[in-house]
Design brief:
The chain has nine helices and no strands. With 251 residues, it is an all-alpha fold. It folds into two domains: 204 residues, no CATH class; 42 residues, no CATH class. Helix 2 runs antiparallel to helix 3 and helix 4 runs antiparallel to helix 6.
C-alpha cells in the first residue's frame, strides 16, 4: 500500500493499524513526516479552536484558533523530555524521530476527532446553546478525543515492544502514568490561557484571570445547567464566594 497517497499515512485508524505502525519504523524520511504531521495537527486544532471561540465573536474565534494548538504544543514540549529520558533509562532502543512520530500520530488522531465534532458544536452555537452547556461539551470532546489519541500511542508502543523488540515492556506501563501527567499539565496551561470560550456579555479578552481552578469551574457549570440562577454573577466571583464561605465555615 502506498501510504503517501492515503490519509492513513498521517491518521492512524482501527483498520490496518499494524501496517501503520510498521510503516513508521520503515520510514526513511522521518523528519519530513514529522513536518507533515505537525502542519496537519496545527490546521485541525486551529479549526476546532476557531469554532470553539465563535460563540462569542470573530476576534475571540481567531484567538481561540491560535490558543488551542499552542495549548497542545506547550503541553507536549513540557512533558516529552522527561518521557523520552525515562524511556532511554529503561532501555528503549527507539529512535527519537520514531518516538516523535508515534506521539504526533496520537495527537493527530485527537485533533481529527475534535474536528469531527465541530458540526455538532456549530449547531448549538447557531441555535443559541447555553454557555455552560457548551463549556461542558468542549471538555467532553477534549477528553474523548484524548482517550482515543493516547490509546493509539499506547498500541504503537506495545507493537514496538512485542513486534520490533525496540521498546521495553516497563516503558509501556510508564506511558500510562505519563498520560496522566500530560493531562494535568494541559489542564493547568489551559486554565492560565483562558478564555477559549467566552460569554457573549463579557466582550473580547486575550487573557483573563479567573479565581478558583478548573475543577470548581466544571462543578459550577453543572450547577448552572441543573439550577441556573436568575441573576447570576460572573463565574470568577461565584467561585471566590464559594471559597470564602467554605473558609469561614471551617474557621
Amino acid at each position: 500500500m502506498d501510504y503517501k497517497n492515503n490519509f492513513i499515512y498521517i491518521l492512524p485508524g482501527l483498520r490496518d493499524k499494524d501496517e501503520f505502525y510498521d510503516n513508521i519504523f520503515h520510514e526513511t524520511k522521518t523528519w519530513s513526516r514529522i513536518w507533515r504531521l505537525s502542519v496537519s495537527f496545527i490546521v485541525f486544532t486551529f479549526i476546532y479552536g476557531a469554532v470553539m471561540g465563535s460563540y462569542s465573536s470573530l476576534l475571540q474565534s481567531l484567538t481561540a484558533g491560535i490558543k488551542v494548538p499552542v495549548l497542545f504544543i506547550l503541553s507536549l514540549v513540557i512533558c516529552f523530555p522527561a518521557f523520552f529520558v525515562i524511556q532511554f533509562i529503561l532501555g528503549s532502543k527507539m529512535q527519537l524521530s520514531h518516538m516523535i512520530i508515534i506521539i504526533l500520530s496520537g495527537f493527530m488522531l485527537t485533533a481529527a476527532i475534535m474536528v469531527s465534532f465541530t458540526p455538532i458544536i456549530l449547531l448549538f452555537v447557531l441555535t443559541g446553546g447555553n454557555y455552560y452547556f457548551l463549556q461542558l461539551l468542549h471538555i467532553t470532546v477534549f477528553a474523548l478525543a484524548g482517550i482515543f489519541g493516547m490509546k493509539t500511542v499506547l498500541d504503537a508502543l506495545k507493537y514496538s515492544c512485542e513486534q520490533k523488540n525496540v521498546y521495553p515492556k516497563t516503558g509501556v506501563e510508564v506511558f500510562r502514568y505519563w498520560v496522566v501527567i500530560l493531562a494535568f499539565v494541559g489542564i493547568q496551561i489551559a486554565w492560565n490561557m483562558q478564555p477559549f470560550l467566552a460569554e457573549k456579555t463579557e466582550g473580547y479578552s486575550l487573557f483573563k484571570k479567573y479565581k478558583g481552578n478548573f475543577y470548581t469551574a466544571v462543578v459550577y457549570s453543572f450547577q448552572q445547567l441543573i439550577s441556573p440562577e436568575k441573576e447570576s454573577a460572573k463565574l470568577p466571583n461565584k467561585q471566590f464566594q464559594f471559597y470564602r464561605d467554605t473558609t469561614n465555615t471551617v474557621k
